[in-house]
Amino acid sequence: MTENPIDAVAAAAAAAARPFARTSPRERGAALVAVAEALEAAAPELIEIAMRETGLTEARLAGELRRTAWQLRLFADTIVEGGYLDVRIDAADPEYVIGPRPDLRRMLEPVGPVLNFAASNFPFAFSVAGGDSAAGLAAGCPVVVKAHSGHPELSRRTAEIVAAALEGAGMPEGTFQLISGQENGVALLKDERIRAGAFTGSTHVGRMLADIAASRPVPIPFFGELGSVNPVYATYADSELLEAFVTSVSGSAGQLCTKPGFLFVPEGADLSAVTDAAGSVDEHRLLNPGIGRAFSQRRDDVLGADGVTVLARGEVRTDDAGQAYATPTVVTVDVDTLMGNRDALLEESFGPLSVIVQYRDRDALPQLHVELFPGNLTSTVHARPDELADGSLAPLVDALAQTSGRVLFGGWPTGVSVTPAMQHGGPYPATTTDATSVGTAAITRFLRGVAYQGAPQELLPAPLRDDNPWNVPQQRSEAGRSHEWGSFAR
Fold this sequence. Notes:
- The chain is α/β, with parallel strands linked by helices.
- The chain is built from 16 helices and 19 strands.
- The strands form 4 sheets. The chain has a 7-stranded mixed beta sheet, with helices on both faces. A 5-stranded parallel beta sheet has the order 5-4-3-6-7, with helices on both faces.
- α3 packs across α4 (about 60-80), α3 runs antiparallel to α6 and α4 (about 60-80) runs parallel beside α5.
């Protein structure tokens, strides 16, 4: 009888889980660096495939591949530094104020095999070797990637390179695998040997997968990055701001999860710069025919909504192969029109389309934001220095912080820096679980806390031992300290 290929993948990942989790920080870090170097060595080949399959430009893809490689290096250093393990050691204390305390030692440990559903719009940075895969591997979890159908050849070749580099660095067989096909992805998500899931894509598919993960006999954490319209609020609207807005909307044909879908400007602002800037943008191929069809329909819905004024109509051209090519579409409405046409206007437009909303009352923006945009990856404020300094925008900023993963001042949300302090997440519907998928904190999604009570040194994991062979940060609570509780608050 032929073995079910999905069963074989799950079995290999499960067999690799404990050996991979036990690798030392330097061993695992060196493996990630080996992957980065292998990807860079194969860059010409990979970029050529990616250009052909996605229609993205060579410059864009080269930058994305560089980001992917250096992200792996950042995680390598994070592993070796060890702070992400959150090691806590409480010494035994017979005089503990609540009652005698045993020796307790806690750290974060890998959850086990992770299933990563790759994205279409970032064929390197959020795909096979992208952030979710890098974070899972850094955490010490075997990773299985479900390839995106939009770039199958690139997915296969990237997976071959990653798996070979990990194997060459001495990592266990089964540490990194690739599958394809929606049915296989769903089947593996339901497999009890998969212990966490990650996804970047549409709200509909992400929610479906999250519900599957939650309805398993033993539910697992699922980290889905879904839809986001990333509103921008401006207290002025000069030509420089409007031109930068169009650049952000049209970059990579608007196929970015952080594209500003709405720009709020004062009523009566001169918006002619938008028309001029959008008219100078060359057409750009959308990622695949399915995205082209969806964008074309979404664009028709927005242009057909009542009360919409067109600033830049743009175009969508489809070639004989079904590939769509688009130029920017920008419309403007007032607040009442936006409120009255929520169904037509508020849904994310994945492509080069955005809505400018003209408002009368700046003080009404905080409540309007909370009502219309309950969860976003980003929200942005553009204001003059005196307006930022006088505190009058504090209510708006507070509303943005409650509903967004990242709040920007004076910039544009497209472009997500890979750095320790980055938060790329947000309340639902931006994500299914409000965590970050970019930056070093992303590793914590694939870890779980384990405490050891009264354990002999010989049986403790290396980070919890007194001799600390991995030299990781240890937060210690010594005996007798409980009697000082509250003194720092006086």
